[in-house]
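If your schedule permits, I should be very grateful for your opinion on a structural question. The matter concerns a single protein, recorded as an amino acid sequence and a row of backbone structure tokens. Could you please explain, in whatever detail you think fit, how the structure tokens follow from the sequence? I set the record out below, with my sincere thanks for your time.

——
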Amino acid sequence: MSPQLRQRIALAAALALTLWATWYVGEEEESAPTVAHTERASRRSVPLKSEAPSKGGAPVGNGQRELAWPERPLAETPIVDVFAPPPPPASLKPPPAVAVKPTAPLLSVVYLGRFAGEGVARAFLADASGAVSVLAAGDSLPGGWRLAAIESQRLVFRHAEFNQEQLVPTREFQ
């Protein structure tokens, strides 16, 4: 038997089983259970007060009524699209603006060395462009920085506008 023939037979069998299962399930749905059809339910049959159909079901010929499927109330929550982006929250307020205290620009100098002659200490500094400056205590750099003090292990700079200090280590230890 060739593989193609086996495959066709398997497909035909699957089709036949599918058709039979569809017919069988469809037949079960047509004969919905009623009070009169089942022996157990007939023992608990409810006699009708009138022959008019009620909300609970339709009358059957022997004074019993047919069971009806219960009505399901609609969901209280609305149907929503699960693929839609969520709406933005209504109570979201922007954060309060925080006043940012202005700060002095960073001092970008490199300590090269110092010279203490004639009773005045002078520091040699190089800036980012490579220009060398010689400063004594009280001298200023461009950008508002003033050399406040020359100490043994550091230089103390103070910004004129913001009154902030920045320390530059000298790396000289005695």
